[in-house]
Amino acid sequence: MLTSNLPRISLGFFPTPVHELPRLSDALGGPRIWVKRDDQTGLATGGNKVRKLEFSMADAIQQGADTVVTIGAVQSNHIRQTAAAAARLGMRAVLIVSGYPPEHVTGNMLLNYLLGAEVVFTGEKTDITEEVMQAEREKGHKPYLIPVGASNAIGALGLVAGMEELVGQVKENGWHFDWLVLPTGSAGTQAGLCVGARALGYDIKIAGINVSRSTAETQAKVAPIAEACARLIGREMKFPLEEIISFDGYLGEGYSKMGPPEREAIDMAASLDALLLDPVYTGRAMAGLIDLIRKGVIGKDEQVLFWHTGGAAAMPAYAEKLMAGR
Ligand SMILES: *Cc1c(COP(=O)(O)O)cnc(C)c1O
User: Fold this and answer.
1) pTM of the model
2) DSSP 276
3) Is 76 tagged catalytic?
4) CA 27 to CA 112: how far, in whole Å?
5) C-beta of 288 in contact with ligand 1 (< 6 A)
6) Of these residues, 25, 56, 76, 256, which one is catalytic?
């Protein structure tokens, strides 16, 4: 295995299944669409961060940490999966959440408390990471900082392993995919998948649908994470920015703002193939995929794999908007 000489802790259920979405394909009159179910990685409702955390948490333990500190938005799936990983490993989790406590504690935020994490809100401040780290040290703890989305070289290793898992499934089942479509936020997922595909010589177009950034900003985030991640598996790789496939046409009103395209994608996937998407990431990515199919960017005779990164735990926070007009 590409990552076998690196510290890793088992946290998830792997391999995750791959299956087809036949009714969605039919409804779009488009290509065959398959889905990689990383919403089924386990660990307190799962998601893509479980893959990253298998490496991040192993590094934390190796460095003698007893506490993990990480950062995210109120409905962050990443901080919830970090809280879950910490609980499983008997570590403390301190979650730095931007802004003020929400009026209604629901979705991922509710799970953070159930999982026993400590939640610190930034209020008006933009960055309190160093304060929190220092306070932890003063209390006698050994804190380990996991960056936003666990999107660094270590976290991205999880998706190198994920790509290796996929390639195994492709070979075993004789599948062929032209495109891999996924949501891209802090970019570690796309970076790791690119490294894995390159290392294995697997030819597939890895297309990120951005949830929060322009194409240029995203490419500039993916490349350095990918290059540093490649070094961890002993490879020198270059990722020219223009070769990183990134779509920023689906940002709508901005990060975590669900609009009509996300709503249509969520409704189609759920009602046609019982696939639950989330309003922030996979709903937006599926809206992008639907549009790329309608525009013919993705051809009818091509085959697409949609990488489902999880996120449905945030759904209750959007219940009112999802019910509007029904
Ligand atoms: C974090 C997250 C992503 C984005 O992954 P990055 O590695 O941050 O780009 C996509 N989908 C869901 C559900 C997530 O929680």
Assistant:
1) 0.98
2) P
3) yes
4) 37
5) no
6) 76
Largest CA distance in the chain: 60
Please give the share of the chain, as a percent, with pLDDT higher than 70.
100
Rounded to the nearest integer, the mean pLDDT of the chain is 98
Q: Write the pLDDT tens digit of every residue in 59-101.
A: 999 999 999 999 999 999 999 999 999 999 999 999 999 999 9
- Select from 37, 48, 70, 246 the residue to mutate for testing ligand 1; criterion: most ligand atoms less than 8 Å from CB: 48
